[in-house]
Amino acid sequence: MLKNLIRGSVAALVVVSGLVSSAFAGGFDVNATITGLALRGVDPVSYFTNGAPQDGDFSITEVHNGATYRFVSEENRDLFKQNPEKYLPAYGGFCAFGTAMGVKVDGDPDLWKIVDGKLYLNLSESIQERWNKDIPGFVKSADENWTKIEDTDPSTL
Hints:
Elements: H1 2-25, H2 46-49, E1 57-64, E2 67-71, H3 74-82, H4 84-87, H5 96-100, E3 108-115, E4 118-122, H6 125-132, H7 135-149
């Protein structure tokens, strides 16, 4: 009985340590939750293979750049592992329009668009409508701004 209690406690400690270290390992260049979860648990590959975001399975994950990504299948996880840059959202998953304005705000995984093979997220429907009016111009501005703000704490912008 005591042996099982100790094993359970050690297992819980390992899980909690992994979550905490993931949260602190992700830098300012990735939009992740306090536990280190990116894209709010949405599978980044699903946008490209399914044509829509799908919630990933908590048991099928991959850590990239300090953030944990979830996947709907091992096949999607393997595709991601082979070429993460193909599936990662632009600007670390921060809002594309916000990045074009020089700030880092949350990107909603349900407000997305793939442009020239790159996944872009936006904060709200009204922001996405504005972004859609000049995608090439906003992407150009966001690309320029991202080089300046990528490693900056969002709260300081």
